[in-house]
Design a protein that fits this description.
heterodimer, A: 77 residues, mainly alpha, Non-ribosomal Peptide Synthetase Peptidyl Carrier Protein, Chain A, 4 helices, 0% strand, B: 356 residues, alpha/beta, Peroxisomal Thiolase, Chain A, domain 1, 5-stranded mixed β-sheet, 8 helices, 18 strands, 29% helix
């Protein structure tokens, strides 16, 4: 999977219509962000990458780039 | 891990009642800062919508008594033949005596009847079935009345969005009887007590006595408010636990029984929420239509009552006159999870009754 594809998946998981940019701050720039997003992102990463995210991991995830970087070893390019 | 096959017991009847007060997440916009889009996302993703809750005076015991009378009226079963009454709940009337004993008195059952409570939530119905089947298998009982119910709406803080919109109240009654023919039924049960703090009411019992401090409300970083006597649930950890352990547990019970997915007509999960059930079902590569998950939208997460309630809501017509091979699987507080694979044939049952 490429970074752009993962961004699309994240967008879908958050039920967002507008595109996501890696520089965006999850909590201040993404109006769909809520505790519900943590659930859907945990499910997404588990399903796509077999990566088990914990709720406490999200304290360190500030931007969309932080989120994408968690899977960087499993992404193409 | 305890895994066991029983041959001599069967489920004869399952009935569910819910209280008349219906609440909807649509009416609680102020809890979401007026964010209608967020409510829509919750409805679509988690499948939360309506739930039925009790008034101040009505308890789990009242609901299960009504479910029992409903069952006894419909089946015309001679209640003097009930040898055991098991009451699964985490919302009893008193610390002492047990709900089972009080219900035994209210139903006017025979004195030759064992009665006790089981303190379990979402996995509790399967644990109760396991006990019932075991008691019949040993020959110590022929007719067991299993009551499973909870009023979790009384445990949550209305300002805690992580729990308040989730839980509905319900009472159920299930009659388990000696089977005249061999009726293979398979059970597996699990616990991970290290995860106990992920679903907990911290104060109110004997570890942390209720006092002025336990009533002080605090608001967490997500904006959810509760006190120490309210239910706390770490939703994301429970989600991780469920999607990790449940697929393993279902595959385990299939393997233990020698059955395949194709042999299973329905898999009835504890109705935690639609998102968890669909994630588990997808991981198992089970067809989604074999795993009913619409009950939680209509009635909420009913804790120990949710599996029998889903049976009544989704498949009562099919099990009344037919035969279905089913898996039940409950998971949650403890942490505890339990699954069984059994046959439902000619089970007296009906849709969920709303107690207007």
């Amino acid at each position: 999977m490429k970074r752009a594809e993962l961004l699309e998946n994240i967008k879908e998981a958050m039920q967002r219509d507008k595109d996501l940019v890696e520089s965006m701050n999850l909590r201040t720039d993404v109006e769909e962000w809520s505790s519900l997003s943590i659930l859907t992102l945990i499910a997404l990463y588990d399903e796509l990458f077999n990566i088990e995210l914990k709720s406490t991991d999200f304290e360190k995830i500030i931007t969309i780039k932080d989120l994408v970087d968690i899977a960087k070893d499993k992404l193409e390019g | 891990m305890p895994k066991v096959k029983f041959n001599k017991a069967k489920i004869s009847a399952i009935y569910t009642v819910v209280p008349p007060i219906c609440k909807s997440i649509d009416d609680e916009v102020e809890n979401y800062g007026g964010d209608l889009a967020q409510i829509e996302r919750i409805k679509t993703t988690i499948g939360l919508n309506k739930r039925y809750v009790t008034d101040e005076k009505t308890t789990t015991l009242d609901l299960c008594e009504k479910a029992s009378n409903y069952l006894l009226e419909e089946t015309k079963f001679d209640k003097s033949k009930i040898n055991a009454l098991i009451f699964v709940t985490q919302t009893p009337d008193h610390f002492q005596p047990s709900n089972a004993a009080i219900t035994h008195g209210r139903l006017d059952l025979s004195k030759d009847c064992a009665s006790f409570d089981v303190n379990l939530g979402c996995s509790g119905f399967v644990y109760g079935l396991w006990l019932s089947y075991m008691m019949i298998e040993t020959g110590s009982c022929e007719n067991v009345l299993l009551l499973a119910g909870d009023t979790m709406s009384k445990c949550v803080n209305p300002k805690d969005r992580a729990t308040a919109p989730l839980f509905g109240d319900a009472g159920t009654a299930t009659l388990i009887q000696k089977s005249e023919i061999d009726n293979p039924s398979y059970f597996s049960l699990h616990t991970n007590g290290k995860g106990f703090s992920n679903i907990i009411i911290p104060s109110g019992a004997f570890r942390n006595r209720p006092d002025d401090n336990s009533k002080i409300e605090t608001t967490d970083e997500s904006g959810n408010t509760r006190n120490q006597e309210n239910l706390f649930m770490n939703g994301s950890e429970i989600f991780n636990f469920s999607i990790k352990e449940e697929p393993v547990a279902i595959n385990e019970i299939l393997e233990f029984s020698g059955k395949t997915k194709d042999d299973i007509d329905y898999i009835i999960f504890h109705q935690a929420n639609k998102y968890i059930i669909s994630n588990i079902t997808r991981r198992l590569k089970f067809p989604l239509e074999k795993s009913p998950c619409g009950t939680v939208e209509k009635f909420g997460n009913q804790s120990s009552a949710s599996i029998p309630a889903t049976i009544c809501d989704s498949i009562s017509d099919e099990i009344k006159n037919g035969s279905k091979t089913v898996i039940f699987s409950g998971f949650g507080v403890g942490l505890s999870w339990a699954s069984c694979l059994l046959n439902l044939s000619n089970v007296s049952s009906d849709k969920i009754k709303i107690l207007y």
